Amino acid sequence: MAPTLAGTALLAAVGPATKLPSLNISLHGSSGPSESLIIILVLTLLSVAPSLLILLTGFVQIVVVLSITRNALGLQATPPNQVLAGLALFLAIFIMAPTIKTVDHVAIQPYLHGQINAVQAYDKAQTPIKEWMLSNTRTQELALFAQVNHQGTVAPTKVGMDAVIPAFLLSELHSAFIIGFIIFLPFLVIDLVVSSILMSLGMMMLPPTLVSLPFKLLLFVMVNGWTLVVHALLVSMK
């Protein structure tokens, strides 16, 4: 009984002096968003970052073109997928750098300094991203999704993001396949020439791809192939 009374007295003495940490998630305080809300927003952004990277940047076009280039060379796993994905990631970030700076200037910094609320920050952040996506979206795809979405014939800037995103992705795939076709042609010619030579020499059992691979690599290195491919990607995405 005595230990119980002593413990109760100790809790009574310590309890009033102990302060529990408070959690403030107000959207817009007197001097901007609370630290707790900023942490929540950052964690949420990190969780959806892979999806945003695929949907809102040129990552899809870049990784498809790089994969087609690897297949055209006849290389099955070189460079590895991790290398292609990493190169595509940093190229996408490089291309989007001006847009990211604009978003930070017009939306993120004003919101962190309490100049605008969360809804205004979202609208301001969406505008430069949407403008960049529209500049890289074909009119046919945009009109298709606008029509299916019952938005009729409207100006591209009036089309919702739910129609802009899929139209943008289809346009990226279209551009990637065009670039891939141009890349594939010279290597296809090498394969045909090597195959014809082997058949004329009666070397039926020797795989043509095994013989043509060194010539493909030599041609690719001589014309500085990776630089040409990256340049084509940078030019195709404004």
UniProtKB/TrEMBL annotation:
Protein name: Flagellar biosynthetic protein FliP
UniProt-annotated location(s): Cell membrane; Bacterial flagellum basal body
Keyword list, A-Z: Bacterial flagellum, Bacterial flagellum biogenesis, Bacterial flagellum protein export, Cell membrane, Cell projection, Cilium, Flagellum, Membrane, Protein transport, Transmembrane, Transmembrane helix, Transport
Cellular component aspect of the GO annotation: bacterial-type flagellum basal body; plasma membrane
Annotated InterPro entries: FliP (IPR005837), T3SS_IM_P (IPR005838)
Superkingdom of origin: Bacteria
Family that this chain belongs to: Belongs to the FliP/MopC/SpaP family.
Entries under PANTHER family matching the protein: FLAGELLAR BIOSYNTHETIC PROTEIN FLIP
Presence of keyword Aminoacyl-tRNA synthetase: no
Function field: Plays a role in the flagellum-specific transport system.
GO biological process: bacterial-type flagellum organization; protein secretion
Membrane topology: Multi-pass membrane protein
Main location class: membrane
Transmembrane segments: 38-69, 81-100, 176-201, 213-234
